[in-house]
């Protein structure tokens, strides 16, 4: 009854092309953003910030980046944590060696470096597709793992191979408390979501989707595969590289070379699958799901009075992840985002379905 | 012909030169070189075994089975834990039964509902299966390191002392492994070439629809081929487990089967074997002879290039010869 577009007429091209064409959506989104900025920092505890909200924000950004590649361009990657590592180490070295740079500049440069590396590993996608590409991206994963563990220059000759970062300073505003970290990450995530949204509804996103749906037909209507695929790899790696730098600087603070391993890559892919391939909203859902599930699994047995060991919990987590992925692929290939869309459809007719 | 395959031939030439270089420059003793070579071949046999299961499934059902490594771990765990309370042969028989049940469950619960989906969806489903089997295996059997005792002496034996100075150290167990692998390949070849089921499987591999139209039950064929892959995984797991101990890293090492099948060609059984040997030898050689050079040249914090060497080699192969050494020429090229 409340959620309907009756009577909302579009009389200009601008209003026809806006991101959220329905008034209720705009109100809801503005309310959500206002809530996130004005209410959340004051009511959420530091523990929840550090263990839930901050990982969620960064992983959502990474999943957003991977979704551009997998969901929109149809190129599979099981090595995206490697590009997170590139972003993190690039940011570390930039901050270390050029200390006068502002962190925002460092972030963008780190993203650009990750984009360049991503393009190099995307080159095989021009000759091969589908499953072969999975192995090519796996090569990126193992090579980068090795590179950052072995080449001492990247870790500034640290003995243990782990690196430390200083708290961030943005124009005198020090990002040190959990609430400040949250606000900083939230702003970045919103900016990147807006960029992603406008990319996928612009000509570049349409080229990606055409490439994904049928590459021969896309070529026939004048989309250059080289351009479409390499931009997808570059932009996806840029997003993921920025997420990696944030993961290192804001979330971890200090990290070891294996912080960005194959497990993280697979987790990113699962976020995209469970959340919904080809949906920006789905990246958020997927990230939230992957962050919350282990915590729930740790709490539920204690709540039910069945004590299980931590190793048992992690094995159960593996099984539930696996089963859920198969479940989603069979029952709802478009993921949680599709469930959300179905809910919205239902809401339009509610409470008078005829 | 030469022009078409130029880059491929150049890559092969570079690899061959790299293989011979340590010997030719006199940087190493002949005996040590042969030892490294043999060690590489033995590792290669194990990679081949995993890759074999992989190629079988891809051939028959077109599924890129990421879960093959997890199946190796699962089978090895089953054998190791069952053998604690019964004789080894009984443990192996029961484990084979378990793998067949697993294959049946996968066909019923995963493949059948996803029939006619894109290959990429099936691949992601096997990712899910990987996680599930990894978790299931460790939930049932535990996650410590377990030993499998095959009753073969593990002490190295000195051979060919007359030929080289110092002789060559070899493991008896490695020889047994190689013989078992060879027997398995011969057995599979006979199964595929001589039995009616094998012929039906080859028909399914050639063309699903044509096979179905002449009355070959696709679903049953899939169960059979996944069972065979499960048994191959069991053999690989037992041999590997007796060598290194049964532990979670088995599932990760088995990822090396992916570059092997790329090298050998996805659908080719001989390709899986030869690709495995090439990868095994290549990465051992690279680790032993190229590693120290790199460490000195770039001041690295240790070698370990065998972690990525196989994957990079596969990447190069993808660029110059996407169908692999023995794969079918038809490949989705962009």
Could you describe the 3D structure shown?
- The complex is a heterodimer of chains A (354) and B (334).
- Chain A has 354 residues and is mainly α.
- Chain A has 14 helices and four strands.
- Chain A starts with 12 loop residues before the first helix and ends in a 5-residue tail after the last helix.
- The model of chain A has no long low-confidence stretch (mean pLDDT 87).
- Chain B has 334 residues and is mainly alpha-helical.
- Chain B is 71% helix and 2% strand.
- A two-stranded antiparallel sheet of chain B has the order 1-2.
- The longest helix of chain B has 32 residues, at 30-61.
- Chain B starts with 5 loop residues before the first helix and ends in a 14-residue tail after the last helix.
Write a brief structural summary:
Chain A has 354 residues and is mainly α.
Q: Percentage of helical residues of chain B?
A: over 70%
Query: What is the total tally of β strands of chain B?
Result: 2
The helix count of chain B comes to 13
Which sequence of SSEs, written as H and E, runs from N to C of chain B? HHHHHEEHHHHHHHH
Helix tally of chain A equals 14
Shape of chain B: globular
What spatial order of strands do you see in the largest sheet of chain A? Answer: 1-4
Task: Give the C-alpha Rg of chain A.
Answer: 21 Å
Q: Specify the oligomeric state.
A: heterodimer
Distance between the termini of chain A: 12 Å
Mean pLDDT of chain A: 87
Number of strands of chain A: 4
The proportion of residues in beta strands of chain B is under 5%
Identify the most extensive interface between protein chains. Answer: A-B, 51 and 51 residues
| Proportion of strand residues of chain A | under 5%
Secondary structure blueprint with pairings:
The complex is a heterodimer of chains A (about 350) and B (about 325).
Chain A: H1 13-16, H2 23-43, H3 46-72, H4 80-97, H5 103-122, H6 131-150, E1 163-164, E2 168-170, E3 173-175, H7 178-200, H8 203-213, H9 215-220, H10 225-252, E4 254-255, H11 262-275, H12 280-304, H13 310-331, H14 335-349
Helix pairs in contact in A: 2-7, 3-7, 3-8, 3-10, 3-11, 3-12, 4-5, 4-6, 4-10, 5-10, 8-10, 11-12, 12-13, 12-14
Chain B: H1 6-24, H2 30-61, H3 68-82, H4 88-111, H5 119-141, E1 156-159, E2 168-171, H6 172-194, H7 196-206, H8 208-213, H9 218-244, H10 249-253, H11 257-264, H12 269-298, H13 306-320
Helix pairs in contact in B: 2-6, 2-7, 2-9, 2-11, 2-12, 3-4, 3-5, 3-9, 4-9, 6-7, 6-9, 11-12, 11-13, 12-13
């Amino acid at each position: 009854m409340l959620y309907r577009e009756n009577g909302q007429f579009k009389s200009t091209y601008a209003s026809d092309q806006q991101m959220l064409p329905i008034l209720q959506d705009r109100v809801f989104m503005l309310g959500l953003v206002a809530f996130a900025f004005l209410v959340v920092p004051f009511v959420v505890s530091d523990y929840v910030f550090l263990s839930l909200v901050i990982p969620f924000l960064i992983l959502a950004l990474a999943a957003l980046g991977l979704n551009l590649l997998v969901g929109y361009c149809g190129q599979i990657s099981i090595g995206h944590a490697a590009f997170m590592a590139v972003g993190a180490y690039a940011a570390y070295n930039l901050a270390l060696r050029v200390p006068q740079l502002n962190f925002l500049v460092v972030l963008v440069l780190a993203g650009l470096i990750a984009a360049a590396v991503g393009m190099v590993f995307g080159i095989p996608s021009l000759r091969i597709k589908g499953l072969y590409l999975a192995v090519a991206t796996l090569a990126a994963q193992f090579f980068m793992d090795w590179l950052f563990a072995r080449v001492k220059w990247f870790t500034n000759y640290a003995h243990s191979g782990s690196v430390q970062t200083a708290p961030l300073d943005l124009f005198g505003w020090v990002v040190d408390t959990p609430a400040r970290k949250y606000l900083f990450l939230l702003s970045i995530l919103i900016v990147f979501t807006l960029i992603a949204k406008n990319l996928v509804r612009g000509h570049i996103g349409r080229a990606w989707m055409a490439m994904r749906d049928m590459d021969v037909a896309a070529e026939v209507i004048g989309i250059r595969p080289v351009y479409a695929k390499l931009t997808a790899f570059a932009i996806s790696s840029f997003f993921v590289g920025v997420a990696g730098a944030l993961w290192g600087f804001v979330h971890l603070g200090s990290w070891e070379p294996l912080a960005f391993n194959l497990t993280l890559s697979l987790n990113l892919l699962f976020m995209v699958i469970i959340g919904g391939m080809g949906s920006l909203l789905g990246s958020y859902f997927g990230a939230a799901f992957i962050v919350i599930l282990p915590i729930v699994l740790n709490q539920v047995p204690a709540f039910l009075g069945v004590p299980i060991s931590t190793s048992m919990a992690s094995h159960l987590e593996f099984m539930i992840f696996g089963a859920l992925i198969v479940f989603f692929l069979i029952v709802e290939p478009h993921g949680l985002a599709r469930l959300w869309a179905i809910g919205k459809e239902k809401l339009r007719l509610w409470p008078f379905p005829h | 012909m030469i022009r078409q395959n130029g880059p491929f031939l150049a890559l092969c030439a570079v690899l061959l030169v790299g293989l011979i270089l340590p010997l030719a420059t006199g940087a190493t003793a002949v005996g040590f070189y042969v030892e490294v070579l043999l060690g590489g071949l033995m590792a290669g046999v194990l990679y081949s075994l995993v890759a074999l299961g992989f190629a079988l499934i891809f051939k028959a059902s077109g599924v890129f089975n990421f879960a093959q490594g997890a199946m190796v771990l699962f089978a090895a765990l089953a054998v190791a834990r069952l053998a604690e309370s019964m004789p080894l042969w009984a443990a192996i028989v029961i484990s084979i039964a378990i793998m067949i049940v697993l294959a049946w469950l996968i066909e019923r619960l995963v493949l059948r509902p996803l029939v006619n989906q894109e290959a990429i969806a099936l691949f992601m489903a096997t990712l899910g299966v990987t996680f599930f089997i990894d978790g299931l295996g460790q939930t049932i059997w535990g996650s410590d390191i377990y030993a499998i005792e095959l009753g073969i002496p593990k002490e190295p034996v000195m051979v060919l002392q007359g030929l080289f100075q110092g002789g060559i150290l070899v493991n008896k167990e490695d020889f047994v492994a190689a013989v078992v692998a060879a027997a398995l390949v011969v057995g599979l070849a006979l199964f595929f070439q001589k039995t009616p089921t094998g012929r039906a499987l080859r028909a399914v591999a050639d063309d699903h629809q044509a096979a179905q139209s002449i009355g070959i039950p696709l679903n049953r064929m899939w169960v059979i081929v996944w069972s065979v892959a499960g048994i191959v995984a069991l053999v690989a797991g037992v041999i590997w487990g007796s060598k290194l101990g049964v532990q979670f890293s088995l599932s990760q090492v088995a990822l090396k089967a992916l570059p092997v099948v790329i090298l050998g060609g996805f659908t080719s059984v001989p390709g899986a074997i030869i690709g495995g040997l090439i990868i095994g030898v290549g990465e051992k050689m690279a680790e032993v002879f190229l590693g120290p050079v790199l460490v000195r040249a770039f001041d690295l914090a240790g070698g370990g290039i065998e972690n990525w060497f196989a994957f990079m080699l596969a990447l190069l192969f993808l660029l110059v010869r996407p169908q692999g050494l023995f794969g079918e020429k038809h490949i989705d090229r962009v």
